[in-house]
């Protein structure tokens, strides 16, 4: 029997990343180069290199930008002070914050207004959490895992409100929230998950991939939260998994004696990087290629104003020459969203 390559579906670009990239390209078209982008926009060098070549300049902060310059704020969202800073500097702001991150900001704002202690499940140094902290009360706690829950110093009987980063591992986050609930039974959690549809669907797909493969290659940047979680979810399912930025990082010794290889990609990974890896595996191992699909996504977000009149691109997900094995979403444990559910970021099962 020859080598088989199984590709996860969904994989790669989510609606928030497509929207952020569109915001930059449309801004360049409308306002002319250069336009400025605060932070990395999305966590993938291949994407940011291409945008740089088109006329985007990436900056860490808004200092030194010329008055009137156009600046795009990244999909990860920013704290309110950043908007205020941009207003003071008279910048033309295009806000590419993903609407599903904005939803978390609104929750944080409401809980802060109610005067509740807030616990954010996530990673303190991540840009999304830095932004969300700006909407929560100044003394909000950030807990990455169960061990950190034990160190929370809230008063006995406190009723903290919990919100989460959008790109966490579904199972670990559920366990962390349960640990908070054990210590603070009156805890308040959001009515719907903060972990976004794209993160949940890609994790469901990689769990399914793990059933049929001996090794899984996750294509994504080392600083991409959702890509790192995909590798961890694959390993938790009992399969060796490696995170690679692109084909150049693939080591063939990982594949010695292996006849079934899984491939997936994080939400900020462009499809051409997947194509390169799959083409290589196909030619080197004479491999056949199948897609394992757990659900179909049909989610789009409108491009941020004032650049909405430009035509939007769509994620390139369908790879030619693949046969498709559909797995009913309902049969999967964990969360898979239907199309209606994702429009506002809701889980529907
Ligand atoms: Fe939005 Fe989720 Fe994509 Fe982040 S990973 S940009 S929250 S859809």
Task: Describe the fold and architecture.
Strand 9, helix 9 and strand 10 form a beta-alpha-beta unit. The C terminus is likely disordered. The protein starts with a strand and ends in a 6-residue tail after the last helix. The protein is 35% helix and 17% strand. Helix 4 packs parallel to helix 5 and helix 8 runs parallel beside helix 9. It has three domains: 157 residues, Cobalt-precorrin-4 Transmethylase, domain 1, CATH 3.40.1010; 82 residues, Rossmann fold (3-Layer(aba) Sandwich); 95 residues, 3-Layer(aba) Sandwich (Cobalt-precorrin-4 Transmethylase, domain 1). The protein has 349 residues and is α/β, with parallel strands linked by helices. The strands form three sheets. Strands 10-9-11-1-12-13 form a six-stranded parallel β-sheet, sandwiched between helices. Strands 3-2-4-5 form a four-stranded parallel β-sheet, sandwiched between helices. The protein contains eleven helices and 13 strands. The structure holds iron/sulfur cluster (SF4).
């Amino acid at each position: 029997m020859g080598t088989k390559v199984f590709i996860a579906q969904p994989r790669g670009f989510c609606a928030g990343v497509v929207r952020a990239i569109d915001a930059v390209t449309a801004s360049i078209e409308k306002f002319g180069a250069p336009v400025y982008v605060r932070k990395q926009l999305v966590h993938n060098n291949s994407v940011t290199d291409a945008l740089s070549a088109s006329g985007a300049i990436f900056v860490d902060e808004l200092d030194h930008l010329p008055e009137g310059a156009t600046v795009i704020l990244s999909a990860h969202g920013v704290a309110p002070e950043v908007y205020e800073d941009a207003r003071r500097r008279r910048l033309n702001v295009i806000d590419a914050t993903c609407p599903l991150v904005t939803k978390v900001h609104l929750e944080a704002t409401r809980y802060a207004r109610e005067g509740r202690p807030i616990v954010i499940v996530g990673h303190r140094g991540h840009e999304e959490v830095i932004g969300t902290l700006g909407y929560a009360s100044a003394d909000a706690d950030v807990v990455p895992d169960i061990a950190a829950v034990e160190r929370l110093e809230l008063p006995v009987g406190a009723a903290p409100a919990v919100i989460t980063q959008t790109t966490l591992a579904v199972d670990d986050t559920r366990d962390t929230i349960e640990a908070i609930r054990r210590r603070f039974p009156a805890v308040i959690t959001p009515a719907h998950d903060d972990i976004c549809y794209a993160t949940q669907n890609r994790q469901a797909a990689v769990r399914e991939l793990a059933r049929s493969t001996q090794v899984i290659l996750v294509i994504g940047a080392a600083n991409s939260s959702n890509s790192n979680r995909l590798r961890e979810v694959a390993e938790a399912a009992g399969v060796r998994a490696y995170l690679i930025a692109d084909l150049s990082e693939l080591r063939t010794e990982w594949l010695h004696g292996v006849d079934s290889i899984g491939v997936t990609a994080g939400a900020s990974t462009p499809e051409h990087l997947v194509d390169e890896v799959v083409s290589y595996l196909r030619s080197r191992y004479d491999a056949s290629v199948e897609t394992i699909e757990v659900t179909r996504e049909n989610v789009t977000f409108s491009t941020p104003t004032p650049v909405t009149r430009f035509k939007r691109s769509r994620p390139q997900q369908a790879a030619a020459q693949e046969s498709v094995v559909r797995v009913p979403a309902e049969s999967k444990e964990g969360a898979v969203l239907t199309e209606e559910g994702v429009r506002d970021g809701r889980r529907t099962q």
